[in-house]
Design goal:
Strand order of the largest sheet: 5-8-9-2-1-10-11-15-16
CATH architecture of the largest domain: 3-Layer(aba) Sandwich
Radius of gyration: 27 Å
CATH topology of the largest domain: Rossmann fold
Structural class: alpha/beta
Helix content: 40-55%
Strand content: 5-15%
Number of strands: 22
Length: 826
């Protein structure tokens, strides 16, 4: 039987969609004349490139018309600056968003090529780490969908984040070679190249009118060259641009050195430039690593601002209208140096007075804060900044003087408050606080969940909030339903469309119509059948990659995210050890079969995170091979977590682990992806879990653990965690087995310090939340055994996910921060 067309394959508005025959001819033409291959000898990568080029042709007219329309109407543009864009595979996204899935599938079938195979062959662009980069990608897609003129600005990493492999259970970092076969989506824009400087000195220069200005004279120069990628909105509503910068030397080879025999030294400038865009997040545990990371951040910030100001002047002729026509959003502190760089461009290069330049800068910038962790709020040694960016250090000092004068004179701040709001941290070596710089230089500072925003006001920016009480606002994160429901779970999308109609494809809030069907036994059976098929698919992947057999009948318990102590993968694996002990001790009991699925990368220099990965793999090895477990518990760690792997795991999850220490997760977006795909969340009242609890209702989510206030109280009291461990026999037994080497017979002391930390300080409340977590997991078991109750909860999670669409988030940014959108005059 022919497959029923996906409801996501509705044709785009306007002239009829091309036929499969027309697309077949276009793909063949591209294969022969662009790829240069005869169909008889073409390899899969050749067909992939030819298909992308044929689809790209269909996008080009919309892309150009989107740009023309913005120029014609003089609409305000949004510029989103992010060090990460985890865009994933683009071909399926584009084909789906312009409604060509079935014609392309049929065209390739006629050519004896499978579209699914090509989709899986496209590499994941290694341009991000986790939630921050995936959020930026969702936001770009939503801006295109909502017809907001926008550019994303980032770095074209050659290798990006590392490829993660396992060696005897340890994480090994290898280069992610995503550009090995080129990137057919991108266009190099050699005409959009900007000179970026580092180092040197600053000299005062007197202009003919007697004005004295500062002129930065760098001694190190390179070029930032633009590469543009189209970002297609839903139904091709608009195509915006992701502009990524590649660092290239001004002189690719120093011929005098080469001719004198120094063949390696002759390429020194090329190597220095190439290092900047080689790898995402170079380890900053060394002085050289810190300098490289700061170079990266200034490189892409300066290139982006030069491009923005050039475009604005080309269109409007003066800079006075900058805040009216330009909105720049800083995604975390990585591009915070943009505040000082914009002031340099306005004052030094364009002759504006300081006060006017500051008014324009502050009116143009917005800053999104993503963390309350002090180590994640970047700061740079003053000595490094003065050596690498001497003019910017002068500007930061001047901004700081103005801010501190205002704090002292207008707000009557105390010395302690002055120290708190200062852009220079004087404790333990003078450092420039980039979070403070982004805050004072922006008219809007937003958190990414309701709880996170309130905690910002009370903690990291408490005194700045007192000084500027109107600036902090909340914009709860969201995900694009196109990728995270319609594309990654087409069978569920089809089922929903059959039940409530296809309107939800254009208005995700219409998913609420599923509420009426949540307790319908027929719909529950259909919903469960889709989930089971997704679990079978994941089980096959686990077997292929890990040679571990798991049963799709088991409860799939999933925690996939960056490995970090505050995200508490350690709590999860310790509970698995406790469950293992219980299964062996009580073979007479009935247990709910579980598969615990982990995935995520640890930062190369983060020892405890890498040790937790090793522990998960060690525990998995013991449990999965113990016949006494009788298949009731399996533990798997899937390496090299990325967008494509998430698209396989998320639709298969029954239980979503969102168990961070309360008060430490800014928002989370994985929680929203699982919710959209009908997983039930077990979690703390942290980040966006708080709003999920409100949206889905207390009966449809499993909440446990301490609140953020209780965590802070226990930390403030200095309570000894050993007491909590002594009161919990199951926890104590699990910890002792891990610490004593039960799971690491080759090195019995491997986990002694990791577990010892739970006895000594337990900063992340793993031990003190364990009993509550265990009780919550028992609650999950009870719910799972009540099939009608479980799938009623699962359906309601999908039905009520509309609030967590990135379309809603971007609509709020547009109306409340940027002043853009449909309301703009045409």
């Amino acid at each position: 039987m022919p497959q029923k067309p996906l409801v996501t394959d509705a044709p785009i508005p306007g002239p009829g969609a091309p036929t499969a025959e027309a697309l077949q001819a276009e793909i063949l033409e591209r294969l022969i004349y662009s790829v240069g291959k005869d169909p008889v000898v073409a390899r899969p990568h050749d067909w992939l490139e030819a298909t992308i080029l044929a689809v790209r042709d269909r996008v080009m007219d919309r892309w150009m018309e989107s740009s023309r329309e913005t120029w014609r109407t003089s609409k305000k543009r949004v510029y989103y600056l992010s060090l990460e864009f985890l865009i994933g595979r683009l071909m399926r996204d584009a084909i789906s968003n312009i409604g060509l899935m079935e014609p392309v599938r049929q065209a390739l079938k006629n050519l004896k090529v499978d579209l699914g195979d090509l989709i899986n062959l496209e590499p994941d662009a290694a341009l991000g780490n986790g939630g921050l980069g995936r959020l930026a990608a969702c936001f770009l897609e939503s801006m295109s969908t909502l017809k907001i003129p926008a550019y994303g600005y980032g770095i074209r990493y050659v290798h990006g984040l590392f490829r993660q492999e396992m060696s005897e259970g340890w994480q090994v970092e290898l280069p992610e070679d995503w550009l090995a076969h080129g990137n057919p989506w991108e266009f190099e824009r050699r005409e959009s190249a900007y000179e970026i400087g580092f180092g040197g000195h600053v000299e005062p220069v007197t202009d003919p009118d007697g004005t004295v200005r500062q002129e930065w004279r760098p001694n190190d120069h390179l070029l930032a060259v633009a590469y543009d990628t189209p970002i297609v909105g839903w139904r091709g509503a608009r195509v915006n641009t992701l502009r990524l910068w590649s660092a290239q030397p001004i002189d690719p080879i120093l011929l005098d050195k080469f001719n004198s025999g120094d063949h390696i030294g002759a390429l020194e400038e090329s190597a220095r430039a190439g290092a900047i865009t080689r790898v995402l997040y170079p380890a900053d545990s060394t002085a050289a690593g810190q300098e490289l990371r700061l170079r990266q951040e200034f490189f892409f910030s300066s290139a982006s601002l030069q491009d923005i100001v050039r475009r604005h002047l080309q269109h409007y002729g003066d800079l006075g209208s900058l805040p009216d026509k330009v909105a720049i959003q800083l995604n975390d502190t990585h591009p915070a140096i943009s505040i000082a760089e914009m002031m340099r461009i306005l004052v030094d290069l364009n002759g504006l007075k300081w006060a006017e330049a500051w008014r324009l800068t502050r009116g143009t910038f917005g800053y999104t804060n993503h963390t309350l962790l002090p180590e994640a709020l970047e700061s740079w040694p003053v000595s490094l900044m003065e050596r690498l960016l001497p003019r910017h250090m002068q500007i930061i000092y001047q901004i700081n003087a103005d801010v501190l004068a205002e704090a002292r004179q207008r707000a009557r701040f105390s010395d302690a408050q002055i120290a708190s709001v200062s852009l220079i941290d004087e404790h333990g070596g003078r450092r420039v606080r980039m979070g403070q710089l982004a805050f004072v230089g922006s008219h809007s500072i937003n958190g990414v969940s309701a709880l996170h925003t309130e905690l910002m006001k009370q903690t990291v920016f408490a005194d700045l909030h007192k000084l500027y009480p109107e600036r902090i606002n909340n914009k709860t994160n969201g995900i694009t339903p196109r990728r995270w429901l319609m594309q990654c779970n087409p069978e569920l999308t089809r089922l929903i469309g059959d039940r409530i109609g296809p309107g939800f494809l254009d208005d995700i809030n219409l998913l609420k119509g599923l509420d009426a069907h949540a307790d319908d036994p027929t719909f529950q059976d259909q919903f469960a059948a889709v989930k089971f098929a997704n679990k079978e698919r994941l089980a096959r992947l686990i077997k292929t990659r890990l040679n571990v057999t798991v049963s799709p009948d088991a409860l799939f318990d999933v925690q996939i995210k960056r490995i970090h102590e505050y995200k508490r993968q350690l709590l999860n694996i310790i509970q698995a050890v406790a469950m293992y002990d219980e299964i062996r001790a009580h073979p007479e009991r009935d247990f709910v079969p579980r598969v615990k699925v982990f995935a995520g990368k640890a930062a190369p220099g983060y020892w405890n995170a890498k040790l937790i990965i090793k522990l998960i793999n060690d525990v998995a090895k013991v449990i999965n091979n113990d016949p006494a477990v009788r298949g009731l518990l399996k533990v798997v760690f899937l390496p090299n977590y990325n967008v494509s792997l998430a698209e396989m795991i998320v639709p298969a999850a029954d239980l979503s682990e969102q168990i961070s220490t309360a008060g430490m997760e800014a928002s989370g977006t994985g929680n929203m992806k699982f919710m959209a795909n009908g997983a039930v969340t077990i979690g703390t009242m942290d980040g966006a879990n708080v709003e999920m609890h409100k949206e889905v209702g207390a009966d449809n989510i499993v909440i446990f653990g301490m609140s953020a206030e209780e965590v802070n109280e226990k930390r403030a009291r200095g309570e000894v965690p050993r007491t909590a461990i002594d009161k919990s026999p199951r926890l104590k037994e699990a910890l002792e087995s891990v610490a004593s080497g039960v799971f690491s017979p080759d090195d019995p002391n491997r986990y002694r310090d990791l577990i010892g930390g739970l006895y000594d300080h337990d900063w992340f409340m793993v031990a003190r939340d364990f009993d509550a977590y265990e009780a919550a997991q028992e609650r999950v078991n009870e719910l799972w055994l009540d099939r009608k109750r479980w799938y009623g909860m699962a359906v309601r999670n999908t039905a009520r996910v509309g609030f967590f669409s990135s379309d809603r988030t971007i609509s709020q940014y547009a109306a409340e921060i940027w002043g853009v959108g449909e309301q703009q005059a045409s």
